[in-house]
From TrEMBL:
It comes from the Bacteria. Its cofactor is Mn(2+). This is Amidohydrolase. PANTHER family: METALLOPEPTIDASE, PUTATIVE (AFU_ORTHOLOGUE AFUA_6G09600)-RELATED, PEPTIDASE M20 FAMILY MEMBER. Transmembrane segments: none annotated. The Mn(2+) ion enhances activity. Mn(2+) binds at C111, H113, E146, H172, H377. It holds the Pfam family M20_dimer.
């Protein structure tokens, strides 16, 4: 990491600046060896070994590859706080060519989870060395955020029973927000993630004699349009929802009316009530619209992640720490996104908050990066290493303030 610190807040802890090159090397090692959900064996081993070297108690095997580090303060205290970083990569082939680019085609840290691990590791090293607090810090390194529900699986393995934290907090990098700025909001910040599959069943025939069959194609087209009326005519206008049909599969030849058409897509909402309404109306539409054409439809609806809803008191507490670290002018109100995040499972069970740190516009990328933008889930993405001491300082200050409150 560059020795130039002129663009970093003066509140960044000097010890974190001193250790930054080593943590950067760790981050780039993880970036070069990405592992998909529930396959994070090497990453988990690397984290566990490093935590142990710093004298941190380590517990492994939660949610398959997840682990928890435990740091107890020098002074006795009953309070406990959880800090979470996700570890998994995405099934993306990286286009970057710099030295720490992925060595495994089809796998890439395209969402910055390597950087999330690095920021928490930097904080862990500092907290373990100082232990200038009363209480306990639980470092939650979570697998399988990208579709696997690793948070839920860690809870199934007794995360909160074995490590009884009073609150839990998570941080994600956010491209196109100035590097080192923070943003947070109270209430919903990420949407629920849900998938549907609708199969319209008709009767195939020769395309030149459609009257001899039951064509499911116009029925499918009618369903795509009808789903949007749920948002405009069934959902309250002040509610937010998204229904996106993203896949349509049908047919084997241009002169054959297919027997079946399959529609697939996603539904996003900020509340369970809105989701309940959308699923109910989709099922009703899929029952009655095809019937009007003499066809039938089968509906599969899968609820993946619930909405991520920050607890107001904890969100405001974090906002105060952010202002201390980077100044009020660099703490923004987070605009909720219809993307999804499985930190939602944690917030259903424990008080806490989820927030973002700006990753910049991509100018930090070294020569050899891809031609695409530095956006999440893009093959030209890379985490901004200059965030490591800033994010780690926030974690340290949050621990100190929370356990002292």
């Amino acid at each position: 990491m560059s020795s130039d610190t002129t663009d970093l807040p003066s509140t960044v802890l000097p010890e974190l600046l001193d250790q930054a090159p080593g943590i950067q090397a760790l981050r780039r090692d993880i970036h070069a060896h990405p592992e998909l959900c529930f396959e994070e064996q090497r990453t988990s081993e690397l984290i566990a070994r490093q935590l142990a070297e710093w004298g941190i108690e380590v517990h492994r095997g939660l949610g398959t590859t997840g682990l928890v580090g435990v740091i107890k303060g020098q002074r006795p205290g009953a309070k406990a706080i959880g800090l979470r970083a996700d570890m998994d990569a995405l099934p993306v082939t990286e286009q970057n060519k710099f030295p720490h680019a992925s060595r495994h085609p089809g796998r890439m840290h395209a969402c910055g989870h390597d950087g999330h691990v690095a920021m928490l590791m930097a904080a862990a090293q500092h907290l373990a060395a100082k232990r200038d607090f009363a209480g306990t810090v639980y470092l939650v390194f979570q697998p399988a955020e990208e579709g696997g529900g690793g948070a839920r699986e860690m809870m199934k393995d007794g995360l909160f029973e074995r490590f009884p934290m009073d609150a839990i907090f998570g941080m994600h990098n956010w491209p196109n927000m100035a590097a080192g700025q923070f943003a947070i909001n109270a209430g919903p910040c990420f949407a629920s993630s849900n998938e549907f599959r609708v199969t319209v069943i008709g009767k195939g025939c020769h395309a030149a004699m459609p009257h001899l069959g039951l064509d499911p194609m116009p029925v499918a087209c009618q369903l795509v349009q009808s789903f949007q009326t749920i948002l405009t005519r069934s959902l309250r206008p002040i509610e937010t929802g998204v229904i996106s049909v993203t896949m349509i599969e049908a047919g084997v030849a241009t002169n054959v009316v297919p027997e079946r058409v399959t529609l697939q897509g996603t539904v996003r909402t900020f509340t369970t009530d809105a989701l309940d309404l959308i699923e109910r109306r989709m099922r009703e539409i899929c029952e009655h619209v095809p019937a009007g054409f003499g066809c039938t439809a089968e509906v599969e609806f899968h609820r993946n992640y619930p909405p991520t809803v920050n607890h107001p008191a904890e969100a405001e507490f974090v906002r105060g720490v952010m202002r201390e670290v980077v100044g009020p002018q660099n703490v923004l109100e987070f605009e909720p996104t219809m993307g999804a995040e499985d930190f939602s499972f944690f917030l259903e069970k424990k008080p806490g908050a989820y927030f973002v740190i700006g990753n910049g516009d991509g100018a930090h990328r070294e020569g050899g990066h891809g031609l695409g933008p530095c956006m999440l889930h893009n093959p030209s993405y890379d985490f901004n290493d200059r965030l490591i001491p800033v994010g780690a300082t926030l974690w340290v200050k949050l621990v100190e303030r929370w356990l002292a409150a």
